[in-house]
Design a protein that fits this description.
Blueprint (H helix, E strand, L loop, with lengths): L5 H13 L4 H8 L15 H7 L3 H9 L15 H8 L2 H9 L13 H7 L5 H7 L3 H9 L7 E2 L2 E2 L9 H9 L14 H7 L3 H9 L17 H8 L2 H9 L14 H7 L3 H9 L14 H7 L6 H10 L20 H8 L5 H9 L5 E2 L3 E2 L2 E2 L16 H10 L2 E2 L1 H6 L5 H11 L5 H12 L4 H6 L5 H7 L4
Parallel strand pairs: 3-6
Antiparallel strand pairs: 1-2, 4-5
InterPro entries: Ankyrin_rpt, Ankyrin_rpt-contain_sf, Multifunctional_ANK_Repeat, SOCS_box, SOCS_box-like_dom_sf
Protein name: SOCS box domain-containing protein
Keywords: ANK repeat, Repeat
Length: 466
């Protein structure tokens, strides 16, 4: 043995650990006077290799009999406890903990050296969580690992991969705060909703996560329900609402969860929110109602279904702003529908009319001021390929501005003829009675008309179906 250098003896010891040689054989190597805390490669010591191999007996031997420093670190600051935590070697980890391995390097029990080390490396607890080593995580928490340690990007719980639900649950069981914000402004519950992870949502709610807390002021101040609505999972939305989530627009944020579900084309979430009490007539910060947003948002595959749900839950089809806006829709829903798109669905037009949309053949604005929020004259030019829709609108129109029609240069000659002919004679009494009956009913008017003691053909007439 005396012919070997210290480096060669150390390599021999490391190889013996790697191949799980007997403790007796390792003792022979160490009996030469080899320093068990001597650095091999990149600062790794024999104890690191024993922990990596999960060779528990060797771990115990190196510390108890050979004098290995339980907290000796490699060149990047990792101790044997880090190695065992990362790879899920529970037996070796417990052996290290039983022999006083430092768990919380920046805690009160840590030395000045260990606190300095904590600034350079990840804590063993974080390594266990990062690699989904639940048993090691629990063992570390039992021995005093800090479940609320704060990092640059957030607290310990903010760092948990959202799919590692058992790790999340273990942190919460040992006192992690479920309502801390990450550097990105999200609580764990918000992140779980955003990622559509129902299991994580349930765990967080079971540990008292707040459903109505808002993101910090430097971010869009959404709640968990906003993230759930945008993600489009109705089951998560139900779970959040079961826990007491408010459906209304929160303070200091422009939009309600319902509005985010609408613009995200999440039809099932829209129905859930409305069924559970979301206000179909709540306006955003620009005074736009949910129905105005729905008719003016382009590219929605479920636009008609969402609009019908809003109307069925009492959305006012005639809501409008007092002032004209370039930012968002400000006129009545049916007017905005024709303003924002060039492709039209006659069934959607009939739906809006059935639920009470008013139509006037007038100019809606003058000098950027709203004159008539129900005026649709400026959009009639788009209806040249849609004569059937124009006929329905003419039939439902309440008033005509014949002078404005004559002066509207965008209309075709045929459109002018149709509008002037309809507007030059008084509206017939049957139509006026229809309008009067509809005006007397509260929203939503379709179910009210269905309950009237009238023949079906008259109900259809009142609903502009014939």
């Amino acid at each position: 043995m005396t012919s070997y250098t210290k480096e060669e003896l150390l390599r021999l010891l490391v190889d013996m650990i790697t191949h799980h040689s007997t403790i007796r054989d390792m003792g022979v190597v160490l009996s030469t006077g080899l320093d068990v805390n001597m650095s091999y490669k990149k600062g790794l010591r024999p104890l690191h290799y024993a922990a990596f191999e999960d060779y528990k007996d060797c771990v115990c031997y190196l510390i108890d009999e050979a004098g290995a420093d339980v907290d000796v670190a490699d060149d990047v600051g990792y101790t044997a406890l880090h190695v065992a935590s990362k790879h899920g070697h529970h037996a070796s980890l417990v052996a290290l903990l039983d022999r006083g391995a430092c768990v919380d390097f920046d805690g009160p029990a840590g030395s000045a050296a260990s606190r300095a080390l904590s600034e350079l490396t990840i804590n063993p607890l974080s390594l266990a969580i990062e690699n989904n080593q639940v048993n090691c995580q629990v063992a570390l928490l039992k021995r005093g690992a800090n479940p609320n340690r704060k990092y640059f990007l957030g607290h310990e719980i903010n760092m948990v991969p959202i799919e590692y639900v058992q790790c999340l649950d273990a942190l919460l069981e040992y006192g992690a705060d479920p309502d801390v914000f990450s550097r990105g402004g999200l609580t764990p519950l918000m992140r779980a909703c955003k990622c559509k992870n129902m299991a994580a949502v349930r765990v967080l709610l079971s540990h008292g996560a707040s459903v109505n807390i808002q993101c910090p002021p430097r971010f869009d101040q959404k709640t968990a329900l906003h993230f759930a609505a945008s993600a489009g999972d109705p089951d998560i939305v139900n779970a959040i609402m079961d826990a007491g989530a408010a459906t209304c627009r929160p303070p200091d944020f422009d939009h309600s969860p319902l509005e985010l579900a609408l613009v995200g084309d999440k039809v099932e979430v829209v129905r859930v929110l409305l069924d559970r009490g979301a206000d179909a007539n709540e306006t955003n910060d620009d005074r736009c109602s949910a129905l105005q947003v729905a008719v003016s948002t382009l590219g929605l595959d479920h636009q008609r279904g969402m609009i019908e749900s809003l109307l069925q839950h009492g959305a006012d089809p005639n809501h409008h702003s007092c002032y004209f806006s370039y930012v968002g829709p400000s006129l009545a829903a049916i007017v905005e529908y024709f303003c924002y798109t060039d492709e039209y669905d006659i069934s959607l037009v009939r739906l809006l009319l059935a639920y009470g949309s008013k139509v006037n053949m007038t100019r809606p604005t003058k000098l950027l001021k709203i004159r008539d929020p129900f005026g649709i004259l400026g959009q009639v030019r788009k209806l040249r390929p849609y004569e059937d829709i124009l006929d329905v609108l003419v039939e439902s129109t309440q008033s005509f501005d014949t002078e404005a029609i004559r002066n509207e240069s965008s209309l075709s000659n045929k459109q002018k003829e149709v509008l002037i002919a309809a507007g030059s004679v008084p509206r017939d009494l049957r139509h006026l009675v229809r309008l009067a009956i509809r005006d007397s009913l509260t929203l939503p008017i379709v179910p009210k008309i269905d309950k009237l003691p009238l023949p079906d053909f008259l109900k259809s007439y009142l609903l502009f179906k014939i």
